[in-house]
Request: fold
Amino acid sequence: MAVRLRAVNISTETRLSTGTVATRRLGALAIVMLTVLAVLALIISPEDVNQGSTVRIMYVHVPTIWVAYMAFILTAVCSATYLSGRNRSLGWDRVAGASAEIGVLFVALSLLTGSLWGRITWGTYWVWDARLTSTAFLFITYIGYLAVRRLDGTQRQRARRSSVLALLAVLEIPLVHFSVRLWRSLHQEASVATGGTDVELDDLMLFSLFFGLAAFSVLFVWLLLHRQRMLYLEDAMSSQGLDAAIEARRKEAVR
Amino acid sequence: MEHASFIIGSWVVTALAVGVYAGWIIKRGRDLARRSSDKDFPWT
Reply:
């Protein structure tokens, strides 16, 4: 009986939240993977010949900017789909908005962890270097994108405005990524995605790095699913509130 | 471990920020779902 009651409670809780069985499993997988990553990065993985133990910051710094890039590219893809589609579903806009918000969080974390690494390696938290400056500009651009989403107007107006902005903002990503090659930069060039086959990284370090990318990608998907469902509920409540207000005005007019 | 405060600090800051954001998403999602008059969501 107790088991049955608990099952009913879980079912009701699932219905009255943004979670499902699949997201719960995904969340659990993200926690396990991130825990393994922490052990790999902080304990098992060897120190770097040049950087020493400072390389341990890279296992969190690189995945955060990876998630930010992925999030902003997804925002652009969803925005393009919304603008080009015959059936302009607001679902695309909600995924775009949710993805951009997560991207902003992760680019902020990338700047923060990068500045901690810079303090040890360069002796300063910040320099107006091409990579750092362009990343800060990317961060500010997407703060602007989120601000535009909060402007007054209908949900369709919000979707149209923000979609256009997302397609412009995404052009900054290649600029950020290739800034270390385009300009003289203090920031190191890519160690893995060099275009060649000779990766100068220890096997365990390389595994930890790729495991980190996978763990943070799972985390991103989990956050995205919940955040876009939250936006769905916000939009639904906003529409209901508007319908109720129109109904109230109609009743007033009849009186 | 050399520079332990910076290394652990970068991990702790990331974990805290993601944890707080995830917690906010879950809590706000639950609040909105409970307040919503329509209880049939596309994901249920």
